[in-house]
Amino acid sequence: MARTPARGTDVRLNVSIQRGRVVSVAIPDYQSLMKPVLEVLADSDVLSMRDLTERISQQLNLTDDERRETITSGMSLIANRVHWSVTYLFKARAVNRPQRGHVQITRRGADLLATGGEIRNSTLEQFPEYREFYDKYRNRKVRNRVAEPTTTPNVEVDEEDESPDDLIARAEADARAVLAADLLEKLRTIHPTEFERLVLKLLGAMGYGGLGGHLHTGQSNDKGLDGIITEDKLGLDRIYVQAKRYGDGNSVTPEQIRAFLGAMMGKGDRGVFLTASTFTKGAREAATGVPARVVLIDGEELVELMIDHGVGVEPVRVATLHRINEDFFDAL
Length: 332
Fold this sequence. Notes:
It is built from 13 helices and ten strands. The longest helix has 24 residues, at 164-187. The chain has a five-stranded mixed beta sheet, with helices on both faces. The chain has two domains: 6-156, Orthogonal Bundle (Arc Repressor Mutant, subunit A), CATH 1.10.10.10; 192-308, 3-Layer(aba) Sandwich (Trna Endonuclease, Chain: A, domain 1), CATH 3.40.1350. Helix 1 (34-42) crosses helix 2 (49-59) and helix 8 (164-187) crosses helix 12. By secondary structure, the chain is α+β, with helices and mostly antiparallel strands.
């Protein structure tokens, strides 16, 4: 029996061709859900993700069986697609996250909804915040933008031209891109002392201090040193750590690098300076051509290292592809 979404919502019907037959999918893809998400939020103040998903499900008239559909990880299919829709809308600042697990529409989101047009990733590229996220983390070859900020390229990938391995690789890359951006925003909201402890945990996960230990000195007035990593049991080989949890636009300066080098003087010649922001050109120059060996790690590098070493993140899904084992059949 055909169903019509409530309130006249403009949701495109997902239709695919599989072995010559037409298959209708009741739950739209996450891009097709962007407009319904904004419509629901426009009628509310702040909604939890659970309530938002429930209202979207009601708006789409999903059956109980459709609500119970899950992805491989066990997460609800509709909840997963609403999550990704909100994630990309947030990157475009069309929605805001006032608190954990809650979302609300912004003025930009309301203006976007008022245009009455379709809302998809290509629509969101008119906003500089989204373009910055897109350019920074997603490695797409098509990047020939014209000068007008409202004109965006069509970089949609035809999934029918990709192998299953390519699809999984692209999905993993996209998921990692979003995770990296979210993780960087998370780092910029935690307390500076928590940031100091975090970077010590990261360096430990990377193998530093395995034979010695990690000492958090950020609260001990240790003249600009936030941590000390000992690489041996006697503490003869040490790495000094400085951590600055700065926000976007507040970069580490040459003066701060020189202060760190001064704090290391007479103690050791190896140091790591980490920030959730960036380093100015002068700051990077200040760390070169000096007797001490200092590694600078900015926010983008930091979150990549956290993901690589499983710090502050957890796996939610593992996809496994199988192929014919020719050796097995040859041995029969």
